[in-house]
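Holo prediction. Input below; ligand is S-adenosylmethionine.
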Amino acid sequence: MTDKTAVQALVRPERYPRSSTYDPAWLIGLDMGPNPLWLLEDLATDLDLRPGMRVLDLGSGKGATSVFLAREFGVDVVAADWWVPAEEAAAVHAEAGVADKVEAVHTEAHVLPFEPESFDAIVCVDAFEYFGTADGYLPYLAGFLRPGGQLGMATPGMTREVRDLGAIPAHVKAVVGWEAIAWHTPEWWRFQWEVTELVTVTSARMQADGWGDWLLWARACAEVQPGGEEANAPVVEMLETDGGEYLGFALVTARKV
Ligand SMILES: C[S@@+](CC[C@H](N)C(=O)[O-])C[C@H]1O[C@@H](n2cnc3c(N)ncnc32)[C@H](O)[C@@H]1O
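Structure of the complex:
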C-alpha cells in the first residue's frame, strides 16, 4: 500500500527521469491525452535528436511536448496543431521560457505549410491516429523530411489488429467507438511505412507497460481535474477491464531513405 496521491504517482524518476522534472499539475493542466511526456521520453530513446536540429512536433496540442523537445534536446521546434489556436500554444511556450526555440503554427496535417525536405525530424505524440492511417499519408509526410531525417510516432495501439479480432473489443468500443480501428499494432505500422520504400523503420514496439502508464494518467486526471472523476471514469474502467490484454501505445520510428 502507498499513501501517494494519484498525481504524485506521476513522478517516476526511476522510469522517466526527464519527465519527472516537470510539475505534474502543469502537465495535467495541458491535458489532451495520456501522459505525452512519458510517451515522448520513451520514443526519443529510439531517435537521435541533437541540438540545433529543426523538428516538427505534429499534432502538438497545448504545447507540453514542444517545451520538452526544446528543453531536453535543444532542438528548434515547429509546433503544428489543428484544434489548438497557435496563440494559446505560444503562450505555453513563452511561459516555459522556450519562445525563442518553438514556433506555433495552426495547420491541418494534410496541408502543412512547410518547404519540402525542411525538417531533420518529425515527432508526433498521440495524434497520428486522427490523420495518419491513410495509405498516402506517410509518403506525404516524408516529403517534409530531409534525406536521412527521422520520423517518430507514439499512438494508442493494440496488441492485436481489430481486423484479426473480427471486431473492436467490447470494453474498448463502449468508450471510444469506431475510432479504435485506428489503434493499430506496431507491426501494422511497420509494414504500412516500410512497404513504401520511402523510409526504413528503425523500431516498432508496444511501449512496455503502456497500459499501466495510461491508467496512472487517467487516475491522476480523475483526482484533480474539475469533474475529473466522472469524466475519466469510462477510461479508467476500460483500462481496468482490459488489464493490459489489448491496450497500450505503439511507438514507431523510421529514417527517410
Ligand atoms: C489527443 S491530442 C494530443 C495532443 C498532444 N500531442 C499531446 O499529446 O498532449 C491530439 C492532437 O491532434 C491534433 N489533430 C487531430 N487531427 C488533426 C489534423 N487533421 N491535423 C492536425 N492536427 C490534428 C489535435 O489538434 C490535437 O491537439
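The domain at 26-215+245-256 is CATH 3.40.50.150 (Rossmann fold). That is the main takeaway for now.
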